[in-house]
Structures are given as structure tokens and as C-alpha cells.
């Protein structure tokens, strides 16, 4: 099963290779990995998308925790989470396709962030389905280049259930 | 006052209580060696190869429980010690290895003798550091010792560029360090421990499966208390030998691929396996899906990744063996009532039946070729009163040593288990001898293995390390030959050594003592003679070349399905004789 694991690490050189080395050395797979500094600039947040049965995911989480530069590991699949990915898509546009390209971008609430007479560069954010959806629609127009950030995810804040009030109370 | 990096290095080692440093110099570490040369607190043992330095540091660490420390130069110095780092990583040996590096301004330029020491050591250390600024040196060294020796022990590398050892700064040594991403768990979960106690009290056929973790945590006393109080037999892994007294009636000896018949039968038929500081290695479990099929499993280990790595566990307890066993014993002490002894009598009776059915055996004909088991048994019997430290190389002789040496205390057994590094034994023995000059240190070596590090004879002679190396000389990579006998129809591809050096002359060439026992009747005298001299000794013992080590569980086999002797068809093959063994090449060996 696919799992999204967020890993808070020390923001210093060599940490990425320790994490990557752990995955390659133990034969775990990485589908995507994204890293950037966290709120506290001395730490970075990594989001790793990986795959494996329960036993493998348990080992991945334990091994990540064992790395000395890793401060915190959360397997997001253990609760609700939201995920996003950004893609930058550069398309060739024949004059007659330009309106169609804009229309597709509009449907996906994507932005055109660069434009030349023969190309558009479109920025789109969303979950994997949405990204793949827009790619599928733009493909016939001619995608020149595609860059995806890989997924990032964050746990949903648990919503405290409002104590249900009985609609009517019958008293004797 | 400002100190150079090199001076800070030496000062830090002193503060860490380092007495012995295994080292070999080179360009980028000359400044450090120069400072070492001008002080007396740290004894620098110059080895003849960096691998030797690494294994000596391992032997030192295994025998003392303190970190072993090595210092090597950049490039080839570093790459030569990698084998020892991998070995220490596999066997959880606390090492702090310092490597020299080219100056910070040259890193990445393919400078002279530059190697990516961080890259080389990353997969084979618990942690590694590159010191880029002399101001970080002291804290880094403190952290290195802290990481190597706490939690699950392991090797740590500190890479020191040349300019860092030359630059100056104010020296202060931190009293303690903490690392936010590193917080080993020592105390076990109380509820889980209670569950374990209940399971133990109820079990009819329990077995303790004891590993190296008991040695590292110094938990032998607690282990003995638990076993005796609850009447539980004790199986040991190769790494645990000595953690429980080998001659104790509850000791089953070694389990696993070459373990005793009864140790393996017991774990297979048990209803409760209590694993303490052991990692369910495939040499122990055999076919994982059929490992202890009838048992509930309790697993106590300080490293969460060891738990449920290979085998499903019913009651996992993350923590230090000593602390967890203490708590466990405390609970059990309050509930024990003698009933358990009765409950387990049929189980122990069954084990005794297994013990009588297939004891460890060999046949020594008094005029025939010397049996390797016999040499090791005599060595054990002639030295056991002196509480020796015993190291081994890797191969058949290692397994026989494990079977016949019944060690009574931990930290007497130095062997390479996880990596199985040939050439480990001799330098490891020297490392232990350096730590304990007055003690008897033995090495049971193989003729193949020992040749991987004989250059250290010079180190032994110069540093007066009087280790006694007994070479079980079958002129074969015997362990390989055994597999070829059993699984490759006796085709001895590259296992026959053809020419082995005259080990007596080899020892003498370095100024050590060389002895040989050529007949059964000479064994005792030669061993006594070796023990009597206060110098390093190589004892060459030519043995029966075709002896195989049993019991044996074929790789991936089940623990209760052991091969107990040479299969009959194999005997026939040997009697016919294989063409590879040139009878006329004996000249070197027969004195
Ligand atoms: C030729 C050859 C044949 C072999 N045959 C056998 C054989 O027949 N039988 C056999 O047993 N082995 C055999 N081995 C060795 C085998 O490969 C493994 O090295 C060995 O079984 C591992 O032992 P262990 O489980 O005790 O683990 P170790 O490697 O000693 O690991 C110790 C475990 O304890 C944990 N630990 C560390 N410190 C603590 C602490 N303070 N508290 C709690 N836990 C702690 C660690 O996390 C780890 O899980 C053989 C090796 C060779 C080279
Ligand atoms: C460095 C290294 N290379 C290869 C091996 C594979 N191997 C395991 S045992 C063995 C033979 C050891 O021969 P020897 O030291 O003579 O011991 P014996 O089995 O004959 O007692 C070999 C080659 C190893 N363990 N280590
Ligand atoms: Mg041999």
C-alpha cells in the first residue's frame, strides 16, 4: 500500500544522502521525495511517498527514526491528511490551440506563469488525480516539458465532535 | 591559550579516558601523530595495516566494553579500515575511528590521497562527522564517543581535514552532549513487561534465546537469576557465548546453523521463546516461516528496528536488557512459588533426552590424523582455569571453538559473527591483549583466515602482545569445502589452499615463537609450551583435512532438521580421494 511519511530532519549537509542511502541500502522504494526548510530554519521537512506492506512500512518508520539526524517521523496514513503537488507544464501552442489551452487551465484553476508567441507555461496545484487530469488534456496540444514537485502532505487537524444534542427529550 | 586542532584531538582523547590508540600515519595526519609522539598518557600502537588497526580496536572494545579507538590517514588509510567498520557495524561494536582528510579547500578536487570518507563510511557506521572548522572539533569528538557507546553500540567515524588539525582555537571540552534526534530507549514499557511476566509464569516449554545484547548491556547476572528462578533453559547465539555460564546445567550451548542438536530442538518445540538482545539472524532462524512454529515470542531489544524485522513478535519490549530483566525478575520473584519448576520438569527431561541422543562427538584415533575438535577441546581444558579471552577467525574452526569452549563469563569471546570476516581473529586478540596485558589471550585461527592479517605479527612482537594463536591447519578453506562436499558433489573449486606457508618459520621470521604439534600425542605438550612463553606464539596444528562440522542446518532449512554426520555417500567420495589434494605437496608441513 502507498504511504506518505513526513520526516522532520536536521537542516544540514549530508542528511538527504543518509535518508536516500537508507532506502537504497535496505531495498525500500521511494516514489517521490520533497524537501524544504521548515518553520524553524534549523530543520527541514521531508515528505516521502513510499510503498510496502505493513511490515515494511513499520521497518521504514523505525529505520527513519533510528537515523540520528531525524527528529520526528509521522506516517500520515495513520490519520486523515491532505496532500498537494505542483506541476509546471510548458506547452507548444499553435495559434488555433491557444484559446483551448487557456480554457483547460481555467477548468483546473491553473495559472499561466510564462507566455511566448508559441508556448505557455502553466502552473497547477492539486492532488495527483488533478495533476494527471490536466496533463492528459494538455497532451494532445503538445507538452514540451513537465516538472512536478512530488507530493507534500499535512495531517488534518482532528475535528472535535460537537456533543450531539438529543432532538427531543420526553419527560414523564 | 589557543591549541591546534591536533592538540585538541589529543586532549579530547585523554578526557575520554582513551589509553590505547591503534594507528597508522600518513601525510594529512602527521600533525596529530607529532603531538601524540610528545605525550605519554595514550599508548599508540602502530599496526602494519589499517584493517589490523580496526580489528584490534574491535577486540579491545569487545573485551573491555569501552570504545576502541583507531586513527588512519586519508584515502587508502581510510579505505583499508572499511572492512573493520562494516564488521563493527554488523556486530554492534563501539568504535571511534578518526580519519585524516585533505584540507577543506581541496575537498572534492581529487586531491592527492583524497577519498570521500563520508561517502565510504556512511553505510557502515552508526554515524559519521566531517569536521570543517577547528572550533567544532572538541564537541564533535564528544558527540562521537557519546553516539558510539550509548543505545545500540556501533562504529562512528570522524573525518578531520588537515587544516583543521593545524588551525588554532581556544579549547573547552563539553561535560556532556545531547542530540535532539537521538534518544535511545532504556526502560521497557511496564505494561509489556507485565505481559511478558505472565506469559513466562504460564509457559510449559519456555526457552531463553540470548544474544549479544546481553553482553553489551552487562545483564548476565539478571539473566542467570531469571533462568534459575523460573527453570528456563538457555540457548545462546554465537555472539552471546559467555553471557550465560557454558557449564551451567541450564545452558544449552550455541543454537543455530552449527548449534547443538538440543538447543535447536528446544527452540523448535518450545511454546515460549524469550529473545533477549538477539536479532533473529538467518543463521539462527533457518527457514523463517518455520522458526519456533509453536511458540509465543517475547523480544527484548534496545533497537526498535530489530523487533519484527524477520519474525513476528507477540510481546515486543524496547529497552536495555539489564533494566528490563531486572523489572521482569522483580515481578516474577513476587509470584514464583516452585510450581513452575514442576510445570517444566517434563520439558527439561525432554531436553535431556535430546542431549543424550546426539551429543557433540568426534572420533580421535590416537595414531590417526589430529581431529580439529580434539585440538580445540584440549586447548579449552588446558586453559579454562586461567579464564582466557578467546578470539576466532571465520570458518569451521570458529564453529568448533563455539561448540567446545564453554565460557563462563561475558567479554571472553571475540568473534566476527554478522560479517564473518576472515582475518579478524589475530588482530582482535591483540587488541584484547593490549587492554589486559596480564591475561591469557588465545586465538583459534584458520590457516586460510590467518593469512589475511599475518603482517600484524610485527605489531605483536614490537608491542609485546603475547597472544597465543592456534592455527587449525587443514590446508583448506574448510568451511567452503564442507559446503562443496554437501551441496556441490565434492567439487573443490578454489577451496584447496595448495601452498600454505610454514607458519613456524613465518612466526620466527617476525621474531615471534613458532611451534607445531604434528601428532596427537604432542598436542598437550605443545600447548603447554606455548602458554609458558611470554611472547606471541603461532602454534601450527596440521589436522584431518576432511573433517566436517556438525550439527548443520542447511541454509534455509528448518531448525529441527539437522544434518548430524557426513551422509554415507559423501564418505565414499572421500575414500576414493579427490584429485585436487596433492599428497606430495606435504613437504612444507611435515616437520
Ligand atoms: C561461519 C559462521 C557461522 C555462523 N553460525 C552461527 C550459528 O550456528 N549460530 C549463531 O547463533 N550464529 C551463527 N553465526 C553468527 C550469525 O551470523 C549472527 O552474527 C548472530 O547469530 C547474531 O547474534 P545475535 O542475534 O546475538 O545478534 P548481535 O549481532 O549480537 O546483536 C545484538 C542485538 O542486541 C541488541 N542490543 C544491543 N545492545 C542492547 C542492550 N543494551 N539491550 C538490549 N538489546 C541490545 C541489538 O539491537 C541487536 O538486535 C555464524 C557466523 C559465521 C561467520
Ligand atoms: C574476507 C572473507 N572472504 C571470504 C569469506 C568466505 N569464507 C567463509 S569461511 C572461509 C574459509 C575459511 O578458511 P579457514 O580460515 O582455513 O578456516 P576453516 O574453515 O578451514 O577452519 C571462506 C573463504 C569470508 N568469510 N571472509
Ligand atoms: Mg582451513
Beta-strand fraction estimate of chain A: 35-45%
Q: What is the general shape of chain A?
A: globular
**Estimated structural class of chain B:** alpha/beta
Secondary-structure element sequence of chain A? Answer: EHEEHEEHEEHEE
Distance between the termini of chain B: 64 Å
Overview of the structural elements:
The complex is a heterodimer of chains A (172) and B (591). Chain A is an alpha+beta fold and 172 residues long. Chain A has 4 helices and 9 strands. In chain A, strands 5, 6, 7, 8 and 9 form a 5-stranded antiparallel β-sheet that branches. In chain A, strands 2-3-1-4 form a 4-stranded antiparallel β-sheet, covered by helices on one side. Chain B is 38% helix and 16% strand. In chain B, strands 3-2-4-5-7-6 form a 6-stranded parallel β-sheet, with helices on both faces. A 6-stranded parallel β-sheet of chain B has the order 11-10-9-12-13-14, sandwiched between helices. In chain B, strands 16-15-17-18-20-19 form a 6-stranded parallel β-sheet, sandwiched between helices. The chains are: A alpha+beta (172), B alpha/beta (591). At the A-B interface, helix 1 and helix 2 of A face loops of B. The site of thiamine diphosphate (TPP) has 19 residues of chain B, from helix 17, helix 19 and helix 21.
Amino acid at each position: 500500500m502507498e504511504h506518505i511519511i513526513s520526516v522532520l530532519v536536521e537542516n544540514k549537509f549530508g542528511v538527504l544522502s543518509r535518508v536516500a542511502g537508507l532506502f537504497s541500502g535496505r531495498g525500500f522504494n521511494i516514489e517521490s521525495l520533497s524537501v524544504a526548510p521548515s518553520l524553524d530554519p534549523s530543520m527541514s521537512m521531508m515528505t516521502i511517498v513510499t510503498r510496502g506492506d505493513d511490515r515494511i512500512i513499520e521497518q521504514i518508520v523505525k529505520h527513519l527514526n533510528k537515523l540520528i539526524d531525524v527528529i520526528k517521523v509521522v506516517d500520515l496514513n495513520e490519520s486523515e491528511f491532505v496532500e498537494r503537488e505542483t506541476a509546471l507544464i510548458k506547452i507548444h501552442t499553435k495559434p488555433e490551440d491557444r484559446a483551448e489551452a487557456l480554457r483547460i487551465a481555467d477548468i483546473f484553476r491553473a495559472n499561466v506563469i510564462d507566455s511566448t508567441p508559441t508556448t505557455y507555461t502553466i502552473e497547477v496545484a492539486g492532488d495527483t488525480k488533478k495533476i494527471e487530469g490536466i496533463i492528459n488534456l494538455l497532451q494532445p496540444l503538445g507538452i514540451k516539458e513537465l516538472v512536478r514537485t512530488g507530493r507534500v502532505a499535512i495531517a488534518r487537524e482532528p475535528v472535535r465532535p460537537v456533543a450531539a444534542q438529543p432532538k427531543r427529550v420526553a419527560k414523564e | 591559550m589557543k591549541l591546534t586542532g591536533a592538540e585538541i584531538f589529543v586532549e579530547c582523547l585523554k578526557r575520554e579516558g582513551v589509553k590505547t590508540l591503534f594507528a597508522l600515519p600518513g601525510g594529512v595526519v602527521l600533525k596529530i601523530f607529532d603531538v601524540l609522539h610528545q605525550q605519554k598518557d595514550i599508548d599508540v600502537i602502530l599496526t602494519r595495516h589499517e584493517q589490523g588497526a580496526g580489528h584490534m580496536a574491535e577486540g579491545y572494545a569487545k573485551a573491555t566494553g569501552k570504545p576502541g579507538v583507531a586513527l588512519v590517514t586519508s584515502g587508502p588509510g581510510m579505505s583499508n579500515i572499511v572492512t573493520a567498520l562494516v564488521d563493527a557495524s554488523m556486530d554492534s561494536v563501539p568504535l571511534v575511528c578518526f580519519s585524516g582528510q585533505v584540507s577543506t579547500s581541496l575537498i572534492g578536487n581529487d586531491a592527492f590521497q583524497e577519498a570521500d570518507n563520508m561517502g565510504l563510511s556512511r553505510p557502515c557506521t552508526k554515524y559519521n562527522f566531517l569536521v570543517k572548522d577547528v572550533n567544532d572539533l572538541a564537541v564533535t569528538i564528544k558527540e562521537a564517543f557519546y553516539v558510539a557507546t550509548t543505545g545500540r553500540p556501533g562504529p562512528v567515524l570522524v573525518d578531520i581535514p588537515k587544516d583543521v588539525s593545524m588551525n588554532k582555537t581556544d579549547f573547552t571540552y563539553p561535560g556532556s552532549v545531547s542530540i535532539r534526534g537521538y534518544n535511545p530507549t532504556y526502560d521497557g514499557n511496564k505494561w509489556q513487561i507485565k505481559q511478558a511476566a505472565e506469559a513466562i509464569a504460564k509457559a510449559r516449554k519456555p526457552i531463553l534465546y540470548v544474544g549479544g545484547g546481553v553482553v553489551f548491556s552487562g545483564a548476565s547476572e539478571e539473566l542467570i537469576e531469571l533462568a534459575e528462578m523460573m527453570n528456563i533453559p538457555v540457548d545462546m547465539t554465537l555472539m552471546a557465548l559467555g553471557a550465560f555460564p557454558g557449564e551451567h546445567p541450564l545452558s544449552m550451548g550455541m543454537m543455530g546453523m552449527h548449534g547443538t542438536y538440543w538447543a535447536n530442538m528446544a527452540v523448535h518445540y518450545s511454546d515460549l521463546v524469550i529473545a533477549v538482545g538477539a536479532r533473529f539472524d538467518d543463521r539462527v532462524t533457518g527457514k523463517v516461516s518455520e522458526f519456533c512454529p509453536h511458540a509465543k515470542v517475547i523480544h527484548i531489544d534496545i533497537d526498535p528496528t530489530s523487533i519484527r524485522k524477520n519474525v513476528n513478535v507477540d510481546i515486543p519490549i524496547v529497552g536495555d536488557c539489564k533494566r528490563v530483566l531486572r523489572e521482569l525478575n522483580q515481578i516474577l520473584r513476587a509470584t514464583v512459588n516452585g510450581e513452575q519448576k514442576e510445570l517444566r520438569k517434563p520439558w527439561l527431561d525432554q531436553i535431556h533426552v535430546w542431549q543424550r541422543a546426539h551429543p557433540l562427538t568426534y572420533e580421535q584415533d590416537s595414531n590417526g590424523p589430529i581431529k580439529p575438535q580434539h585440538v580445540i577441546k584440549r586447548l579449552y581444558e588446558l586453559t579454562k582455569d586461567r579464564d582466557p579471552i578467546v578470539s576466532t577467525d571465520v570458518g569451521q574452526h570458529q564453529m568448533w571453538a563455539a561448540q567446545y569452549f564453554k565460557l563462563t563469563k561475558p567479554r571472553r569471546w571475540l568473534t566476527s559473527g554478522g560479517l564473518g570476516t576472515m582475518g579478524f581473529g589475530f588482530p582482535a586478540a591483540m587488541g584484547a591483549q593490549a587492554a589486559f596485558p596480564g591475561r591469557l589471550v588465545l586465538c583459534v585461527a584458520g590457516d586460510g583466515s590467518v593469512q589475511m592479517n599475518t603482517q600484524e605479527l610485527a605489531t605483536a612482537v614490537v608491542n609485546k602482545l603475547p597472544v597465543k594463536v592456534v592455527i587449525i591447519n587443514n590446508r583448506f578453506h574448510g568451511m567452503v569445502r564442507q559446503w562443496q562436499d554437501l551441496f556441490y558433489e565434492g567439487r573443490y573449486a578454489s577451496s584447496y589452499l595448495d601452498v600454505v606457508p610454514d607458519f613456524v618459520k613465518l612466526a620466527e621470521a617476525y621474531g615471534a615463537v613458532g611451534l607445531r604439534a604434528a601428532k596427537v600425542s604432542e598436542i598437550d605438550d605443545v600447548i603447554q609450551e606455548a602458554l609458558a612463553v611470554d611472547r606471541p606464539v603461532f602454534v601450527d596444528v596440521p589436522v584431518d583435512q576432511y573433517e566436517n562440522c556438525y550439527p548443520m542446518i542447511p541454509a534455509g532449512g528448518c531448525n529441527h532438521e539437522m544434518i548430524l554426520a557426513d551422509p554415507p555417500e559423501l564418505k565414499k567420495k572421500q575414500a576414493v580421494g579427490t584429485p585436487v589434494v596433492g599428497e606430495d605437496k606435504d613437504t612444507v608441513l611435515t616437520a
